[in-house]
Sequence to fold (470 residues):
Amino acid sequence: MPQYEHVEKVRLLVVDDDPPIADLVATVARYEGWDAVTANSGEEALRQAAEFHPDIVVLDLMLPGLDGFGVLDRLRQSGTMVPVVFLTARDGVADRVAGLTRGGDDYLVKPFAVEELMARLRTVLRRSSGPGFQRSVLQVADLTMDEDTREVRRGEKLLTLTPTEYEVLRYLMRKSPTVLTKAQILDHVWEYGFGGRSNVVELVVSRLRRKLDDSGEPLIHTVRGFGYVLRQAAE
Amino acid sequence: MPQYEHVEKVRLLVVDDDPPIADLVATVARYEGWDAVTANSGEEALRQAAEFHPDIVVLDLMLPGLDGFGVLDRLRQSGTMVPVVFLTARDGVADRVAGLTRGGDDYLVKPFAVEELMARLRTVLRRSSGPGFQRSVLQVADLTMDEDTREVRRGEKLLTLTPTEYEVLRYLMRKSPTVLTKAQILDHVWEYGFGGRSNVVELVVSRLRRKLDDSGEPLIHTVRGFGYVLRQAAE
DNA sequence: AGTTGACCGACAGCAAAACGACAGCGCCGT
DNA sequence: ACGGCGCTGTCGTTTTGCTGTCGGTCAACT
Fold:
């Protein structure tokens, strides 16, 4: 079931001065089976990095005192090549971030969706773990999703999905054949702090169905009173 | 038989300003062999959390004084990652609930059914107790129920159950081979405060029988004048 | 054979889900 | 800076199918 396999648990360090955010990320990561620790300041981050030896770091750029850039410099000075995914405010330092993402690192704008962050983390890990990294292709029945090229196919047929549709489908595919509630989908795929009603989930599912269930048997099933599943219909 | 196994008893803190509700939940939990304490205000909840060190918390969001969100914040600030299942009024704070299932927590709308609550608690515990959590599959004779995929099978044959049927069957399976009275089933599977003390249970059992006893020997047996059991017929 | 409890078909009310239509917004190209 | 287009989410309507009530029939125990 898991797409990315480590022999050992992935070790994640989350650095954000807003404890709820740091905990949120750490919690979600632990649910994926990772080891996660948090730091709420740049200084603490350096301490944790030295002790914990993370495989990957989520680093907020906007930190009081020693900021994200500072943390990054010090990390690199100490010789560690640990990959980093940056977090930045929307209108923050977007241009300066661009230069940071060369080494296989990545960045995300706040507020983000947790599934999006986890996907980026998995991608960065995959790319940075040795040279011969392989593609990540999700598959459920005759539906495939290539996370590198963002190509989605039902059988041979190429589907054109909007960003939201893509994210919802990825979540459904990743969790398949587990049944997900609308609240779970909403909470994982939409940005934290999104106020909208779970009605949007129905809508996106409806649009997804039109695109992918058009050709062939339905793959997205409604579990009335509970939620949705993506799976091949069992007999 | 139990899906989630603690070496020690599960420690549950129930927070609700309505004492009957809090006691109801605590009582059911104790009946399952858990340790349970109650708190009727946010302040008391924090005190209890500090003293009792629960493994999981049931937290009503609508509390006088320090409300559920406040309690949650304080809990998290104090560094405890204890998982929480929230209770909310139907048209109350349903919108503000967005984001709560993201960290692995869950929520339930009042009035709820006790078995539903217990099931959610077990799920959350299972998922948050370390990595590599396994599926929860109930089995009685050749009848299986996967609580993640909600797939129910009699032998190979896949059954399609409505939500109520599913809940009644889960309760029967979980308690098998104990005989349950209709009142017990009604009290556990239907929302507390459900008015119709009619023959709904008979009806649902009847519908269940048609779906699952159709193929093979009957598994649901009537104990006339008392109730129902789910078990393989004893010769 | 009578009495009581259980079973279950039929129906109606209702809640959840599907979806069409529209409006706001951001993004992009010019 | 402006205009256009496509994406997203809201609203409201339609559709679906679950749920519980009623009441007649059946089975079991006395």
Residues 137-230 of chain A form a domain with the Arc Repressor Mutant, subunit A fold (CATH 1.10.10.10). Chain A has a mean pLDDT of 90.
